[in-house]
């Protein structure tokens, strides 16, 4: 005939106990949470580090341009005729201090990218960085493109021929259709197109994830001066590449 009063009391007692004293997490549940957190960290941390590294590299490229423009103005305004604009000044810190003391830079340029440094190249008469993509040839072309814009307020020619080089101060005999360290450099307006010579390829990673390979007969890599960013094929969202990942290898 139904449930006895004692049984009802026991059920009510157990119910109150469960409400007042909930069970804790099980070991399996804790492990699952830890695994999920580890997966999220594995995805998020590399992306964050990549964006920080990119910011540091962009800062260093801007610092190099500031140093090179300040040095150029120093030579012109001070009417320096010697082959080396810093003749008689030894040491990169001393060269920067000279530019600072005469007002051609506002502060000492300190690189932010890991293992980078700024050094004055006597033979090429430019400031270079250790982590500049593709080394000094890249810096020579982008400096020429930037200097041309700062002088004329327009970027260089976008059509083919020697003028792409000669108009911005580069010798076509040294650059046009001449691979340097297995790389062709083609300035087109505000863009620098790069591709490997035959027998070589460029391997790289996309910022959004995934990797790519560029061969001599394929698309170009593009460095865009307007945003100091590298792209594959075209300047579009999703085509940005990580310059730290660039590597030239034999095909």
- Largest sheet descriptor: 4 strands, antiparallel
Secondary structure class reads alpha+beta
Q: Assess the beta-strand content as a share of residues.
A: 15-25%
Could you name the ranges where pLDDT drops below 50 across 5 or more consecutive residues?
A: none
- CA-atom Rg in angstroms: 29 Å
Q: Tally the beta strands.
A: 9
How is the largest sheet built, in terms of strand order?
A: 3-4-7-8
**Helix and strand succession?**
HHHEEHHHEEEEEEE
Helix content class: 40-55%
Shape: globular
Structure explained in plain terms:
- The protein is 41% helix and 20% strand.
- It has 251 residues and is of the alpha+beta class.
- The strands form 3 sheets. The chain has a 4-stranded antiparallel beta sheet, with helices on one face. A 3-stranded antiparallel beta sheet has the order 6-5-9, with no helix packed on it.
- β5 and β6 form a beta hairpin.
- The longest helix has 51 residues.
Care to give the gist of this entry?
The protein is of the alpha+beta class and 251 residues long. The chain has helices at 5-20, 27-77, 92-101, 136-152, 163-166, 172-175; strands at residues 118-121, 126-129, 183-188, 191-196, 200-206, 211-215, 221-224, 229-232, 241-250.
Keywords, please?
four-stranded antiparallel sheet, alpha+beta, 251 residues, 9 strands, 41% helix, globular, three-stranded antiparallel sheet, 20% strand
